[in-house]
Amino acid sequence: VREQALKRADEDAFTADGHRIQVFANIGSPADVDAALQNGAEGIGLFRTEFLYLENDHWPTEEEQVRSYRQVLEAFGDKPVVIRTLDIGGDKDLPYAELPQEENPFLGHRAIRFCLANPDIFKTQLRALLRAGVHGNLWIMFPMVENLSEIREAKTLLAECRRELEAEGAEVAASIKVGIMVEVPAAAIYADVLAREVDFMSIGTNDLTQYTLAADRGNERVASLYDASHPAVLRLVRQTCDAARNAGILVGMCGELAGDPKMTAALVGLGLQELSMSAGAIPEVKEEVRQVETDPARQLADKALQAEDGSQVRAIVEKGKMN
Ligand code: PEP
Ligand code: MG
């Protein structure tokens, strides 16, 4: 199976009944691009930009950022590259940022919250993205969004950066898609409202699981509770997919769950159109997509949503594969 999967890694993935499911890679730096391409990534579904900030001892300059983003965009040509804006705070500290200690960092001042409160830092990144966007098919994604005004504020800053760059005579990408991560339960619960302001949504099951189940993703003592297959998490996934479909926008998944080949049929059945994962998982997930029939997958997902817990979900998807 593995051999067959590797042989066909370069081919786009269609279900057995002909629906395209886009299979993308998650990357953490331009150094990951080769592995993504070699494994058949049809695009980048999540470029975590934190590395740029973490590997430096200073806030990365606009030029430094343009260089990084441009490398990735050029490597992928006209294929989509989703670049996520800075997701700092939570468990990710930056020594030079001098972030204040928080009692509950995961519920604190992280990601888009930090960026909106520090517009200079945020605008440096947005300017770099707009400039780099000239060199490929850029999609910008905001992390940890939980309400509409965060999206509006971020888009206002993006528009401001565009005007400034144009006034300076810089070349700026003409059309860029703007989207959000759905990784806070609130965003999934009223995804229909958030969908009005964005071009795409990508579900981050790593955080969505920790927030939905109130189980810290890094705490060993609650590791048995932290389960992305929990039907409550899957219901939020379904709800988000329904909202996106009704709004006519693309919905994907870039959390770890997306790269689990056992879950592929159920994820297609929940309504996901794009799955993004670590490069090594791509060939096998593509091969799984090729086995999927849409209607039975939908029924499989419906059944999983009625399960008692995550282990029952896994038993249901295993059984679904045998039938
Ligand atoms: C997620 O939360 O699922 C996600 C993809 O983002 P990160 O793992 O970087 O928090
Ligand atoms: Mg996250």
TrEMBL record:
It is an enzyme of class 2 (transferase). Its EC number is 2.7.3.9. It catalyses: L-histidyl-[protein] + phosphoenolpyruvate = N(pros)-phospho-L-histidyl-[protein] + pyruvate. GO terms for molecular function: phosphoenolpyruvate-protein phosphotransferase activity. Keywords: Coiled coil, Cytoplasm, Kinase, Magnesium, Metal-binding, Phosphotransferase system, Sugar transport, Transferase, Transport. The keyword Kinase applies. Belongs to the PEP-utilizing enzyme family. This is Phosphoenolpyruvate-protein phosphotransferase. It comes from Desmospora profundinema. The lineage of its organism: Bacteria, Bacillati, Bacillota, Bacilli, Bacillales. The chain holds residues 250 to 572 of 572 of the full protein.
